[in-house]
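Appendix C: a fully annotated inverse folding record. The material below is reproduced so that readers can follow the format used throughout the book. The structure is listed first as tokens, followed by the designed sequence.
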């Protein structure tokens, strides 16, 4: 799909937050972090060191309440997340996740 002005929605005020959360395994810490993020009203949140696994991702997204993506290596280390607020319209067109011994790379194309 080619991108041109006719198929891209205008976003007037996209605000992005990046945060190293140093683990979200604790239910109390996760709830407080998600509440803090929602109160900030940013558009997109890039979280590092979430320490999630495939199992926890399915539990945590309903707790977040909006859309999100996780890329996890282990529940005890690493892992990133991209959380989206509901204050702008977007469609996820493609998600590519790559792993290396030292990093996780997630590419997301939003339209």
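Designed amino acids, in order:
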């Amino acid at each position: 799909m080619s991108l041109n002005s006719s198929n891209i929605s205008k976003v007037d005020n996209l605000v992005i937050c990046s945060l190293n959360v140093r683990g979200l395994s604790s239910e109390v810490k996760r709830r407080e972090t998600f509440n803090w993020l929602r109160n900030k009203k940013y558009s997109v949140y890039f979280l590092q060191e979430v320490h999630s696994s495939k199992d926890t991702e399915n539990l945590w997204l309903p707790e977040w309440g909006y859309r999100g993506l996780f890329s996890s290596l282990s529940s005890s280390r690493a892992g990133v997340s991209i959380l989206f607020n509901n204050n702008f319209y977007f469609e996820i067109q493609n998600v590519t996740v790559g792993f290396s011994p030292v990093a996780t790379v997630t590419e997301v194309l939003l339209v």
